[in-house]
Design a protein that fits this description.
Blueprint: E1 2-5, E2 11-15, E3 18-22, E4 42-44, H1 50-53, E5 63-65, H2 68-77, E6 94-97, E7 100-106, E8 112-113, E9 116-120, E10 125-130, E11 144-147, H3 156-165, E12 169-173, H4 182-192, E13 196-200, H5 212-221, E14 227-228, E15 235-238
Parallel strand pairs: 3-4, 4-5, 11-12, 12-13, 13-14
Antiparallel strand pairs: 1-2, 1-15, 2-3, 6-7, 7-10, 8-9, 10-11
Length: 240
């Protein structure tokens, strides 16, 4: 599984022959990529804020993976015609997306549509992407990536995501102000039990500018077994 961070919360994930793009927003200081350079099979949207869906209209041929409310909005306003399962999905559900299995999990945040304040995007979410369908039986051969979305620290990380979905890697918002900051992300790193954790959702706007050394220090202070890894923009990490 290849994980490429394009700044903010935008991740390009490759599972065998399937490409997934999470929260496309390329107007951020960490990326030099033009949205048109990518051609994802699936477009995963955690919620409707503009810094997570601003470039969704660049991918009209991608299948949308989002709540039914946000899926309907994307189909109407961004040009996508297809949705996973034909209708979107919801919290707790798992959908087969090509060679990947995508489970939608909770995120503690808000979810209005920025450019349409009268429209609700349903519940905000995170995604756990794996190369095998999750079951109650632990599978050491399964490779799994947790994209936490925009969230604060929540007990579901330790009660559900860690024991059931067993992420090997996790991207955690660390910019504070709109999400958890470095301290909360450090605790989350311990709770989710991943081998490696990446900070995201930082440095894009003045309120979320941080020193990423704080993230590294807080992961260590929490006693997490995970390796804190700060990627450069457009850098790829291979998860094996």
């Amino acid at each position: 599984m290849e994980l490429t961070w394009h700044g903010h919360s935008t991740w390009h994930v490759v599972v065998e022959d399937t490409e997934l793009l999470v929260d496309p927003y390329f107007d951020n200081p960490k990326t030099a990529v033009d949205p048109e350079e990518l051609d994802p099979d699936y477009l995963l949207l955690t919620h409707g804020h503009s810094d997570h869906v601003a470039d969704a209209d660049a991918y009209p041929d991608a299948t949308v993976v989002a709540t039914p409310e946000l899926t309907a909005y994307a189909q109407e306003h961004f040009g996508q015609e297809e949705a996973v399962g034909g209708m979107g999905m919801n919290l707790g559900g798992t959908a087969e997306c090509g060679d990947a299995w995508v489970t939608m999990v909770r995120a503690d945040h808000t979810n209005g549509i920025d450019n349409d304040p009268d429209y609700s995007g349903g519940m905000p979410a995170g995604f756990v992407i794996g190369d095998k369908k999750p079951t109650q039986e632990s599978d050491p051969d399964c490779t799994t990536f947790y994209h936490a979305g925009d969230t604060g620290l929540m007990s579901e990380m330790v009660d559900v995501i860690a024991p059931y979905l067993e992420p090997d890697a996790a991207a955690l918002p660390a910019g504070d102000h709109f999400t958890m900051g470095p301290a909360g992300a450090g605790i989350a790193a311990d709770w989710v039990g991943a081998d490696v954790v990446f900070p995201m959702h930082y440095d894009t706007f003045p309120p979320i500018e941080i020193d990423t050394r704080e993230f590294v220090d807080e992961v260590k202070a929490a006693g997490a077994a995970a390796e804190p890894l700060v990627l450069d923009g457009d850098e790829t990490y291979t998860l094996e």
